[in-house]
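Example with several molecule types.
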Amino acid sequence: MATTDPLVLFMPSGKRGRFAKGTVVLDAARELGVYVESVCGGRATCGRCQVIVQEGNFAKHGITSANDHLSARGAKEERYERVRGLADGRRLSCSSTIEGDLVIDVPQDTVINAQVVRKAALDRVIERNPAVQLCYVELDEPDMHKPLGDLDRLKKMLEQDWHYHDLQVAPHLLHEVQKILRKGEWGVTAAIHRDGPTARPTIIALWPGLHNEAYGIACDIGSTTIAMHLVSLLSGRIVASSGASNPQIRFGEDLMSRVSYVMMNPNGREAMTTAVREAANELIGKVCAEGDVARDDILDMVFVGNPIMHHLFLGIDPTELGQAPFALAVSGAVDVPASTLDLSANAGARVYLLPCIAGHVGADSAAAALCEGPHRQDEMMMVVDVGTNAEIVLGNRDRVVAASSPTGPAFEGAEISSGQRAAPGAIERVRIDKDTLEPRFKIIGVDTWSDEDGFAEASAQLGVTGICGSAIIEVIAEMYLSGVISEDGVIDGALADKTPRILQNGRTWSYLLHDGTPRITVTQNDVRAIQLGKAALYAGIKLLMEKLGIDHVDRISLAGAFGTFIDPTYAMVLGLIPDCDLDKVKAVGNAAGHGALMALLNRDHRREIEDTVTHIEKIETALEPNFQRIFINAMALPNKVDPFPFLAQQVTLPPRQIEQDAGDGTDSAAQRRRSREDRAARRSRT
Amino acid sequence: MATTDPLVLFMPSGKRGRFAKGTVVLDAARELGVYVESVCGGRATCGRCQVIVQEGNFAKHGITSANDHLSARGAKEERYERVRGLADGRRLSCSSTIEGDLVIDVPQDTVINAQVVRKAALDRVIERNPAVQLCYVELDEPDMHKPLGDLDRLKKMLEQDWHYHDLQVAPHLLHEVQKILRKGEWGVTAAIHRDGPTARPTIIALWPGLHNEAYGIACDIGSTTIAMHLVSLLSGRIVASSGASNPQIRFGEDLMSRVSYVMMNPNGREAMTTAVREAANELIGKVCAEGDVARDDILDMVFVGNPIMHHLFLGIDPTELGQAPFALAVSGAVDVPASTLDLSANAGARVYLLPCIAGHVGADSAAAALCEGPHRQDEMMMVVDVGTNAEIVLGNRDRVVAASSPTGPAFEGAEISSGQRAAPGAIERVRIDKDTLEPRFKIIGVDTWSDEDGFAEASAQLGVTGICGSAIIEVIAEMYLSGVISEDGVIDGALADKTPRILQNGRTWSYLLHDGTPRITVTQNDVRAIQLGKAALYAGIKLLMEKLGIDHVDRISLAGAFGTFIDPTYAMVLGLIPDCDLDKVKAVGNAAGHGALMALLNRDHRREIEDTVTHIEKIETALEPNFQRIFINAMALPNKVDPFPFLAQQVTLPPRQIEQDAGDGTDSAAQRRRSREDRAARRSRT
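Resulting structure tokens for the full complex:
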């Protein structure tokens, strides 16, 4: 390689190198580690290796790139253009050579056919390096004098053309090979699965001729909802997405009741495994129909879920997870043929499950951690998924810790007097006027607020039916901010003189949110239920922070459905989450699902999370000696002792009562905290 | 390692080395590569590591070995002796240390329990190195603070104690692990399958506590008969053997008719696959019952068969094998889970099939070659299995060639007027008096010859029913030696005047072997049928010899049932086999079955035959230009042109006619041959 050889820069990776004139662009990319897909092995028939030349003077790189620094289209590429078409500016990198300096763009969404583009779960590009590769080869016909078997000649050609050594073959292909080879007139496409540097590559599927499509499934098995994406393994594009209720709900609403069901019903485990696998298969059918994809083209799948979902899906009895020491049957990543899990896809399809972090922090949390990547950066990042159990992962590239906190069902609307699941008609947003103590709210399905014109008509059909999880957070936070409840969560009965919104309810008081049918109030018990739930979550977080020796968190990712709908500010006012710059608190949607997608599309992510999980330290919150003290302090809004300076800059918090720290015995801690918050508040006003 | 360290010699391998005092004997063996079995990993509970100290002065090795050069029995070994018993002189090598020079014998048939000793198929010891190893480990109990899953802790302990890295787990074990671990109170025995240096080790089975038995199956699927051995993988001992008819016979007597059946019946392939697998399963049941072994203890199996049997067993359509270019679907070795072949053994059991050499020379021939080992030595060795097709392997360590010759069913009694399969009542031996031309014979089931007293009574019940394959050889050879037929196989009608044994039969003559009910004669057609069959075989052999540039063979192994019963001398008189020192012509019984056994008990043999097969050159006899000439010359007894000097030393052959070589046009070849034989005959008389 001479210094006068052309310099080639690939975007978006930025990798560059010098290559002699005449070097095939695809080879140059490969040599630099730039991932460019190819199925037909350079025959210019699959079109997957398309690139674009960026013309112009790129002073920063010292490259003047021009279209004619790439060889002119040859016969092969012309033929492809005639038969399949090439969009403007697109060139086949397998059939073009480097003739001068070049800046080459590798499109991340190579359009081969007119598929609808769907947004990724999160709008991030996943660099592709899938575990399954399609490889087209052409074999010599059998020769009586060279009696190597058909399958053996196939393996030899795959070794020669694609450099796969020591290939295994999925057993079901043994009796199909001869037919397929002859049908393809000795040209066939092999799907080769190779996951990990020590794994032997395996031919898992075979088609006659050039087969140019390969799909994968990324699926998050939630306790309540199963979410699935159908993805092209070649282009990385999400082709279809769908979801369904987890049918195990009929055996038990929550996880522990499903464990009980197993313990009390001899066929319970089997029934629940069958139910979830059937649901997965139905979803596969749905996404295939929606994406117009054949099931037979699905070659790889990634599933995530919490440990009990994970075990039931694998057919493992989850009983041990229901009691200390909460022993996982398997914590490491799992790699099995899809057929062993009764999943209907290509007969050779594979399934990968991410590792579980601990008995209550599962593959879904690992996937969320993979997605958000606390371990990939320097800031202290917290990823939290709030459900009946909250899973918390906290750390940075130096150290990561994890815990599970039993928050209970309050955040989903259960145990709340007017609580309900999010559905049209449910109150989802609430504001309470600090002076009048009058509420205004918004319901799901209607755009106008309750105090705006047209609300009555707009809401007439749906009605105002109850309060959903995100609204619970808001209404209680607003009740605190407006003084309806104290920092200890007590509804102030004295306010009954000021406003008809405060109603007596036995020996306690309630706040009337909506006087309709039904009548929607927030009771003292409701407030307590939320306090208990949020205190459990905060205590788990605080214990992790103490383990890491930190007093604040730099970044918070709220994962899961709940995270998507709660207002981070209100969550912080409640003290559900610790103090943090609110600009760095984000809902990240189904991070677990996105993590599954990352693992599906890139083997390196699998190795990454497998390694990371071995370093994540699991804290068993209930056993920590500080837990009780921290929990009690966390009952108060936002917290009895911990300061919230970042929050105070954004929101005017009510003055703190000078109370005793539950464990401290002095009021100096409270005073110090109040001073800190007052200073912060003053700073924000100047 | 000092030169004053004790010197230890292991027998029978002869490996030796110096080890510091205090070195555990088992460790020393392993370091030298001496295979000593151990399941319990040094806990002195399995008893598999037993050795014997050979006392005395071994001047050749410079070792004076004594019992007290081994540490005295410790508590562990005492306990084993109390509980399980140790035969005199036996010591547990895992619990004894080296304290002085030693000669240590590693018994090849370690008796753990009182099993009946059966002879191996061939009385040879197979050095053991099985693909499945039993490994006992003890795990820590689960710990909430160290949330590694049960299966993951198992893998870790197997890595720590047994040095297995990167272990995979058979999927069916995922949901059984927890139960088994707890049942074993955290002590379990794992069966680990690892076949080949690039294969990842896989846990295929798991038992609670110490599980001290592992069995394997070696099976030869013949066209007519399926032969199976049940073997202990730990001791190498054959525990039971059995055989059964191949049920595919009902779909077609011979191989080609079975191929036709597939082509003409849409479910034919499936029916034949099902039939052979059911037969294999039944045989497994039989050998298990006979050996008092549980099916669940069978972990590894090796199957061999000719290519059509091989393919049908694997569920592969054999149609391509019925026509040029006779393309094998797979020629390399096959390694699949037993469950994929519907075989009932341990759920994690594996199956290995040896490679096939060519379209008509299958895994059975490869197994026979493995057994006899032409590639392992310097002499020119021929291994031949005579059936409807004869498979021939010829060569030495430098070069090996193989061919298949279609001999037809004559050697099994078909197409012979009085021919029948070997069964009680069939003539199996014949002698014809050179002067009187009177025959005497022996039938299967009766010890006396037909000319001895008591024969009539002894044979009254069975009757004399026909001539079996081995007797065909003898009677025709005797007819030649006595002059009844010419070297060209023509029955001499002129002899009808001399003896009532020569009968007219239309336009030809027959020889009357037995005038009973039925009347047993050898017709001219019978002779022709045998000539054609033996000429085909000889021609195949001769072509291989020409390829190797040799004019004689040093050693001949006659494999298969036919080989067991024919008299090599008569086979050579017939010219069925080439000239060779008769002391070096041996029947080797079911060499294919023994080769399967070798591959079952020692992974190195699998690698050996996989490598050897890649070097075996396949000759397609029917396409060779010389075939016709060689074939025609081979019609004569023993051969028209080839000399048989070795044979002439043992047997007085009739004088050769001075005929023309079919392709030579001169009589010099015949003359030269006759001179050579005459000289050889004179030498043998002096």
